[in-house]
Amino acid sequence: MDKHHHQLPLTKSTSRQRYNEWVFRDVPSDITIEVDGGIFSLHKFPLVSRSGRIRRLVAEHRDSDISRIELVSLPGGTESFELAAKFCYGVNFEITAANVAQLCCVSDYLEMSEDYSKNNLGSRAEEYLDSIVCKNLEMCVEVLRQCENLLPLADELKIVSRCIDAVASKACVEQIASSFSRLEYSSSGGRLHMIKQANCELDWWIEDISMLRIDLYQRVITAMKFRGVRPESIAASLVNYAQKELIQKSLSGSNIQEKLVVETIVSLMPVEKFVVPLSFLFGLLRSAVMLDCTVASRLDLERRIGSQLDTATLDDILIPSFRHAGDTLFDVDTVHRILVNFSQQEGDSDDDMEDVSVFESDSPTTTPSQNALFKVSKLVDNYLAEIAPDANLKLSKFIAVAETLPAHARTVHDGLYRAIDVYLKAHQTLADPDKRRLCKLIDFQKLSQEAGAHAAQNERLPLQSIVQVLYFEQLRLRNALFCSYPDDDIKPMHQSWRINSGALSAAMSPKDNYASLRRENRELKLELARMRMRLNDLEKDHVCMKRNMQKSSSRRFMKSFSKRIGKKFNIFGHNFSRDCSSPSSQSERTESKITERT
To answer: Quick check: 583 and 497 in contact, CB under 8 A?
Structure first.
């Protein structure tokens, strides 16, 4: 039905122009019908012979020579009544998918049934609907579009339900037929296999049903899911419909309509994992946040995103905040809830893997769940670095996001250190206790050599954190030397010094504690400098040894060379162990050397 014709009221002049072509001209009119402001001067006999309602209304005006009847709320308005009047006058016209819904509704309103005339309008329209329309998917969709303006009567007459069932049934049959057509017999393997085919060729109905209003579209998709249409096809249809309603019609549509579309699409999404594209889920979530959709819709989207967060990108999770002024630039709370969903689902999968590992001892050490954790940990660290410069970002929110993942998720803490450094740089007024609380997130043993070197010189870090960095840097160097030359006197460094130092500092006053930390910091820096020089000497000797081995194969030369290197190792090992035996004596020697130099 043309909406323009439906909205244009039929005045006296326009009605004459339209019905003068088929109404009796030589017989005076004896009844006037008014429909939505349109006036029809007609004759009683052809009308009362077909319409039970008009017959009853005319009987109420027997005393009047000319009756005037107003038909209130006639479905389809003047256009529908004109078609019904033509039928009463015996004028031929074509029943099509564009007018059959109107004819069914107007014939019901005017009571044009078999009780008043054989082969009346009602039975003719019903026959066309059942025998023609319901056997063609495109025609069913067209009828459903016409029913949008004929509700609730079209529902009461089961026009909508019949068309919806036909659409769902046709889509399911087409899907099965296309599956069989893609089966191919393999002579080599003696088995059937499926030939891949583009979705656009299989699901040609997606574009047709995207023209429906959201309420009818919802009913069609629900019927398709009940019939067993593939989840991939359902998801493709939802994506296509959302793009039309939320992107192409966003300028002309209202927020209320868009909100209804988002909430409906979320409720229709298949339960199967990875069927709906992750980028589409994030797009819907942004719309849901902006349109203030129901909590249930947003939580459903967050749960779905959390189940496949390891495939997300940084741009995906940078969701703008649409709240009041003074809030963060990005919606941190939403991302935090997504991470909580991810962590909970990963925890469940870990439990499942533990149950399986009891029976499968040969399973790989790195599970898919662990791989997902590694990917998400990098994503989170990049996200923290991106939101850290926001002046409105509270420390508690930053820490909450960082702590969402389990400790074993991060094998390297470089990304987390970088994010914390950006936060400290942007929030320079942060109190020392808050700085220490923030830096407790970092495992300084998991910093790379480059990140450790940067942290050792980073004045934004608390003094305690710098001491830890220097200590682990020293520990790494000594252990590297021990592993390279196990026969030497160099011993691997352990954490007893750190524990003793911590115990002493806890018993001191704050002023003495600070001085002690400064002294330990200075000692560690000097010790690291000496160890790096020793390591450079060893590397040079190692290079020389390789060159000499290539030049000469003499065992005598190798023996003398080994003795020379061995002496150097013993001296280094003796001095190193002596230097590390007492931090206080080391400090005295270091300070005396500095004094002599100055």
So the answer is: yes
How far is C-alpha 183 from the geometric centre of its chain's CA atoms? 34
Angstrom distance (rounded) from CA 98 to CA 125: 12
pTM over 0.90: no
Residue type at 348?
D
Instruction: Report which DSSP code applies to 196.
Output: P
Question: Phi first, then psi: what are they for 329, rounded to 5°?
Answer: -65, -35
List the pLDDT tens digit at each of the 598 positions of the chain.
333 333 223 333 444 445 555 566 677 888 889 998 888 888 888 999 999 999 998 887 776 666 788 999 999 999 999 999 999 998 888 999 999 999 999 999 999 999 998 999 999 999 999 999 999 999 999 999 999 999 999 999 999 999 999 999 999 888 876 665 544 545 555 554 445 554 444 578 999 999 999 999 999 999 999 999 999 999 999 999 999 998 877 666 688 999 999 999 999 999 998 899 999 999 999 999 999 999 999 999 999 999 999 999 999 999 998 876 668 899 999 999 999 999 988 656 555 544 444 334 344 444 458 889 999 999 999 999 999 999 999 999 999 999 999 988 999 999 999 999 999 999 999 999 999 999 999 998 899 888 988 988 888 988 888 888 888 877 777 766 666 555 555 444 444 334 333 434 444 555 556 566 666 666 666 666 666 666 666 566 656 655 655 555 444 444 444 444 344 333 333 343 334 343 334 434 433 433 333 3
What residues have CB less than 8 Å from 468, skipping those under 6 apart?
444, 498
Task: Round to whole Å and give the CA distance between 30 and 80.
Answer: 21
Structure tokens at 550: 């290539």
Sort strands 191-194 and 183-186 into parallel, antiparallel or unpaired.
antiparallel
16-135 domain in CATH 3.30.710.10? yes
> What does the domain layout of the chain look like in residue ranges?
16-135, 142-180+204-229, 230-293, 308-346+369-483
- d(CA 198, CA 203) in angstroms, rounded, equals 9
Q: CA-based angle 410:411:415, to the nearest 5?
A: 60
